[in-house]
Amino acid sequence: MTDEALPAGFGQRWVHTMFDAFLDRTEALADLDRRAGDGDFGANIAAALRRARENIATEPPGSYSAWLTAVSRGFLGTGGTSGPLFGMFFRELARCTGGPEPSPAEFSTGLSAGLATVQRYGKAEVGHKTMVDALAPAAQTLAAHVAAGDEPEAALRATADAAVTGASSTVSLVAARGRASYVGEVARGVLDPGAAAAALILQAAAAAYPDHPGPVDTTWLDATE
Ligand code: ADP
Ligand code: MG
Questions:
Q1: Would the CB of 179 count as within 6 Å of ligand 1?
Q2: What is the Cα–Cα distance from 129 to 182, expressed in whole angstroms?
Q3: Can you give the pLDDT at residue 79?
Q4: Is 82 in the pocket of ligand 1 (CB under 6 A)?
């Protein structure tokens, strides 16, 4: 199962589903960074999405790698800590295959490489209240499903669920990295916006697997707002 490519158009559907989820919840993410950071996260995400959409309009992508590269460049051109980190994360995902769409095994390798590059530059471990808290369990879960030869749909769903659980776990933490670490105890009780964004990205991948992706269920964000 895992050496067959994901269905045609997966990359394009993923990017569009991700844009929709972010556009729907930018204000909620912005509010999290206002409460536990310096308040620029919403503006950073909005700027990255605007740049990514401009890239797509100027040079319409023709492959999975091109879709993910357009997103990567949108984030790389953005300020804050999250912009460059997500930019490098998407660059690894763009590189994971030479084919029109990745196989689950290639996708898993890309996700692990994305996590590794975020950790290499950001030096965050699980428990530091960052995007790593969502990305690390997601990468582990996908690798385990791929190793077990599970169906891609179930593997992507389990990956998204692991990311949401990991993101939700940041509520009870104080931050050891990023600007939220400057506010100490104030950050406890607030979901980490970067971890929440990482979970939305992986939920969008699961939602994009079928030919007609449904919207991402973002109601879990409200439970902790
Ligand atoms: P800044 O902290 O510079 O204001 P943003 O507001 O753009 O950056 O992004 C904040 C998010 O970036 C946090 O919610 C966290 O998930 C993530 N982040 C911050 N520092 C790191 C780091 N060293 N490693 C991984 N992620 C980080
Ligand atoms: Mg910030």
A1: yes
A2: 12
A3: 83
A4: yes
Q: How far is the CA of 40 from the centre of ligand 1 (A)?
A: 10
Structure tokens at 181: 């670490």
Domains of the chain and any CATH numbers: 10-224 (1.25.40.340)
pLDDT tens digits, residue range 85-97? Answer: 999 999 999 999 9
Cα gap 172→167, rounded to integer Å: 11
148 half-sphere exposure, CB direction, 13 A CA radius: 12
Q: Is the CB of residue 136 below 6 angstroms from any atom belonging to ligand 1?
A: no
Ligand 1 pocket member 87 (CB < 6 A): no
| Measured distance CA(210)–CA(97) in Å, rounded | 20
Please tell me the pTM assigned to this model. Answer: 0.97
* Residue with CA at minimum distance from ligand 1 atom 24: 122
Cα 176 to Cα 74: distance, rounded to the nearest angstrom: 27
Q: Give the residue, by CA position, lying nearest to ligand 1 atom 14.
A: 194
Ligand in nearest proximity to the CA of 48: 1
CA 81 to chain CA mean position, Å: 14
**Residue 42 CB less than 6 A away from ligand 1:** no
Instruction: Report CA(40)–ligand 2 centroid distance (Å).
Output: 4
Over the range 209-218, which residues count as b (16 or more CB within 10 Å of their CB) and which as e? Answer: beeebeebeb
Could you tell me if the CB of 86 is within 6 A of ligand 1? no
Evaluate if residue 225 carries a pLDDT over 60: no
- What value does the mean pLDDT take over residues 43-61? 96
Helix axes 41-58 and 82-94, enclosed angle (nearest 10): 40
